[in-house]
Amino acid sequence: MNEAVWNHDIAGSSGRNNETPAQRLRGRQIRPIVRRVTLGLSVVWLGLVAGAGWWMSQRAVNTWLSSVGASTEYETTTTARVIQRLFTEMVSVTNMVARQSQVVELATRYRTDPPGFAELTHQQRAAQFTRDPLVRKVGDYMNALSGDLRYGRIYMNNMSDDTVTASNWASPDSIVGMIYTGRIYLMDALRTGNGSSFGIARLLKMPSYFVSSRIDDANDRPLGSVTVKFDASDMALYLTGRHISLVINRQGRVITSSSEPFMLRNVAALLPPGSTVPSADGEESGDAMDVHAMDLQSHTGGWVIDGKPYLLRSQPLPNTQYQLLTLASLDDLVPMGKRHAWTAGLVAVVGLALLLLSSHVVGQMLIRRQDERYAANYDILTGLPNRRAVVAKLDRLFAVAKQTQSWVLVAFIDLDEFKTINDTYGHEVGDKFLIEVGRRMSASLRANDMLGRFGGDEFVVIGLAAPSEPENPDGTANAIRSRLAPLLIGTYTFDECSFDYAGASFGIATADPSVGSVESVLKEADRLMYADKQARRTRQTV
Questions:
Q1: What is the DSSP annotation of 26-40?
Q2: Residues 8 and 126 in one domain
Q3: CATH of the domain at 486
Q4: pLDDT digits (tens, 9 = 90+) for 421-436
Q5: Rg (Cα) of the chain, in Å, rounded?
Q6: Beta carbons of 250 and 277 less than 8 angstroms apart
Q7: Active site residues
Q8: Which residues, 6+ apart, have CB-to-CB distance to 180 below 8 Å?
Q9: Which of 7, 104, 253, 482 has the fewest CB atoms within 10 Å, i.e. the most exposed one?
Q10: What is the pTM of this model?
Q11: Would you say 182 and 202 are in contact if contact means Cβ atoms under 8 Å apart?
């Protein structure tokens, strides 16, 4: 296709009205719609003042909730790290004490209680143990360590579950001589090497965490266990964020809290259904709090607990049986909505003015966007798909052909002597000729074929075809040619003139999608078209 053909398109378009018939049609379709929508919105706008105020309030509330949610999420992550470090520290301390040489020596000496020890009272057993200087020495070591680390107590039990020594061995409330039969953390320590549990201490009724490690001799024979007791009140000192932090066990009971009203209450309703389990050691589950979910629309984690609204974030504590819950108070939620109510009137007045002012702008933008979409995929003169649309359709045809075992067909049609028509009758007639060519070919296409204008005087037909037969490889091409070529031959009559046209050059190619490509089939059709053009010139010369 030569340069004169492209110049024809530019020159032919420059003299036209700025608005094409297609553009005028789209304008006539869109403008009434915009007017009706604007009228409808104007009528109902004043009735939506309350809705506008609600929308503004919701937007502000959502922003605030997002900020609260981010703060709660950060605090949950940070606090979980602190609590996990405490548990890790307790495990490390029990392991260290269980391997201390004097502790191992003492455990070897009192691996089990002597016969008849079980019949003695707690005080009598304590008196027997504390006569031993090693019991007192190890107890002093445990006392110094627990004081440095703010532990409630450190103590050692033998295989008879009897407390041989403890950090409070010299106190009137000493637990030396206490027998802790059935304690889950002691049994786990002797069985697996480590054990942990939450419980209420017998003597002081203090909610506490218990972490134990097994004491082994040189032959890995269990001798007893060392336990660290860390009181919940001391752990609560580490929950010092802006929000309420709760450590809960698998029964949903709050075992540590930064807010006293939650302590030892049950909030199992905050956990996923079916995630709670009964206590293995019979520990109470606590009195249930009044908990029900609240709707925060686009935000999750809204709960009402004992009549107060909260935003909840949770995180399991690794290597433990506990969860950390963080509750951010939402007491400001209702007052915030009331403060936003006054903005509804202003929004209604300003919105009505903006609606009337912007309706025209919106209509023009919609028309322009439709024009841009149309211009990107359709030829402005003929209304046929352009090169971009044809190539995109070819990509899809190749995918369909692979699935249906079909071939892809491409037919290039180049209008011979089109420059002569332009030079003889003018560009306006040339435009009408191109439009008429497109109309004639469109009328004879198969249902699934697509006709497009590739540019200038080139048209292209694409579609699916049956695989080429070895005995008749050109059958599909000949069928397309015999259907389309005669349509272009004959007399063309316009207001300005009438002339006979000898026809166009065709290049028809089919491609197996498994070995061909869009580029290769287009190139082959173009080559065949130029070969046909050359053959037609030769025949005309002869």
A1: HHHHHHHHHHHHHHH
A2: no
A3: 3.30.70.270
A4: 999 999 999 999 999 9
A5: 44
A6: yes
A7: 457
A8: 157, 161, 163, 186
A9: 482
A10: 0.55
A11: no
